[in-house]
Amino acid sequence: MQELKDIKNLLDRLSKNDAHAFRLIFHAFSDRVYSFSFRLTRSQETAEEMVQEVFLKIWINRASLAAVDNFNGYLYTITRNLAFNTLKRLSIEEKAKHTLQREFADKHSDTEETVIHRDYQQLLNRAISHLPPQQRLVYSLCHQEGLRYEEVAQRLKISRLTVKTHMQQALRTLKSQFAHVLQIGIVFLSLGL
């Protein structure tokens, strides 16, 4: 860990696409990012995802890192902004979900709700079935069986980070496939259908 004493040198190497320098920085700072993210979000899963997103941003913006004088401050700012954006997005999603549920309950009978729920479940199952095999398996173990990332990693004999990556990719795919379904539902609700 002698190399970590000169963070400026590591940032310079990283700005020149040095993957080893990136790994050293990740291992040195990922726990800090996780702790700070967890304090802000109070969610282990969200904090873990934020660690990946923070370091993804660092990798994407690596060319400009040689100019960073205060890496701790830079890391803090990225993490804080990402946490606030995540919390804002989650809050908006939660409010929209409650509004849709309330309006839906007011305008539709239980039978219609059951039919629609079944239809959405079928759409979800179809979307899950189109995921790549490893993503489908990880999604099933995490969301349908309720296993934690560590348990899935042990069961599949892969790293926890690989489980997390598969899970994030699966969720992104499913969210993108359902975004249009939710938009159509909002339009129908606004029209009173």
From TrEMBL:
InterPro entries, A to Z: RNA_pol_sigma-70-like (IPR039425), RNA_pol_sigma-70_dom (IPR014284), RNA_pol_sigma70_bacteroid (IPR014327), RNA_pol_sigma70_r2 (IPR007627), RNA_pol_sigma70_r4_t2 (IPR013249), RNA_pol_sigma_r2 (IPR013325), RNA_pol_sigma_r3/r4-like (IPR013324), WH-like_DNA-bd_sf (IPR036388)
Start and end residues of each RNA polymerase sigma-70 region domain: 26-89
A GO molecular-function annotation: sigma factor activity
Annotated CDD domains: Sigma70_r4
One Pfam match: Sigma70_r4_2
Domain named RNA polymerase sigma factor 70 region 4 type: residues: 122-174
Family per record: Belongs to the sigma-70 factor family. ECF subfamily.
Name of the molecule in the record: RNA polymerase sigma-70 factor
